[in-house]
Specification:
mainly alpha
């Protein structure tokens, strides 16, 4: 197990290097630059001033030289300084990262708690009314744009009925509230974004769990366990569920990038001061150091999520352990 972990960690280094290289090239090939953004804010700026800005930002150098300079800083855990306000990128991300991680963890937890039991129950009710309703829910979850659903939820639950707040993570003056009221206020602000972020994942994960459980229930060893007279609960939990969760674990690792990418949309819609909102504002301002810093953190979180999924797969499936040891 330790050798497997070390091997995977070593493999993450070239993958992360490749991700940063591609992202750096794509960002610099995109139309516009920090200098042109400043020019839009100051239309009367002279060409000499624009050239001075390019030199200040180091944009007058070739792209490969700029990437190598950036890479040297990253190796020393220095993500550079923002072009917008001159603050250290590391400090800006440090302020926003906890909120984004909490949102994504809550969304992932909601998907696990709700989707897996629904998928298992639907497999037992295959062809029945519940299973057909779940199919409708799945197709709805895949077809409805989540940003449109977020706006609709804000109108219905926030504006029309006034049940839930529609922006931020706390109310104005929350600092003066008692501790339990602040916790309740924080939960109210997170209900809508976490639910909407989880919607598509709930639909997909429940369907995959259903398909996996149906496939497992048709296996010979399940018929043998039932023929031995084992209780149905034992057959499901001890024999069927463990094998049915194998593809689900793989999908969880693949769901991490989608959740992190969705943070950009939902944090902007709900005005949540997280890493996604910072990424959007930085992209609009062509703030290259901040964009690259956020992409590096996002890539790291994605790689860690996939590593955790592989470890869980390693633990759940004994065949993997035998293969690795062999």
């Amino acid at each position: 197990m330790l050798f497997y972990l070390l091997k995977r960690l070593a493999l993450m280094i070239p993958i992360l290097f490749g991700i940063t290289l591609i992202c750096f090239v794509v960002i610099n090939l995109a139309p516009g630059s920090p200098a042109t953004f400043q020019e839009e804010l100051s239309p009367k700026a002279s060409p000499e001033a624009m050239e001075s800005l390019k030199k200040l930002y180091g944009l007058d150098k070739p792209i490969h030289e700029r990437y190598l300079n950036w890479l040297r800083m990253v190796v020393t855990l220095d993500l550079g300084k923002s072009f917008v306000d001159g603050r250290a990128v590391k400090e800006k991300i440090k302020e926003r990262l906890p909120i984004t991680i909490i949102l994504n963890l809550l969304s992932l937890l909601l998907i696990l708690i709700v989707a897996i039991p629904i998928g298992i129950y639907s497999a037992f009710k295959s062809g029945k009314l519940f299973d057909r309703l779940l199919t409708v829910f799945v197709f709805t979850g895949f077809s409805v744009p989540t940003f449109w659903l977020a706006l609709l939820a804000m109108i219905v639950f926030g504006i029309k009925f006034g049940l839930l707040p529609i922006s931020g993570i706390q109310s104005i003056g929350a600092e003066t509230m008692p501790f339990y009221e602040r916790i309740f206020d924080w939960i109210k602000h997170l209900i809508l974004p976490v639910t909407i972020m989880s919607f598509a994942g709930l639909a997909g994960m429940s369907r995959y769990t259903r398909s996996s459980m149906l496939e497992v229930l048709r296996q010979d060893y399940i018929r043998t366990a039932r023929a031995k007279g084992l209780p149905e609960r034992v057959v499901i939990i001890r024999h069927a569920l463990r094998n049915a969760l194998l593809p689900v674990v793989t999908l969880l690792g693949l769901a991490v990038p989608g959740l992190i990418g969705g943070s950009v949309i939902f944090e902007s819609i709900f005005s949540i001061p997280g890493m996604g909102q910072l990424f959007y504002s930085s992209a609009m301002a062509r703030d290259y150091p901040t964009i690259m810093g956020i992409l590096v953190i996002g890539a790291l979180l994605t790689l860690i999520g996939n590593l955790l999924a592989d470890i869980a797969y390693f633990i759940i499936d004994p065949r993997i352990r035998v293969k690795r040891n062999g």
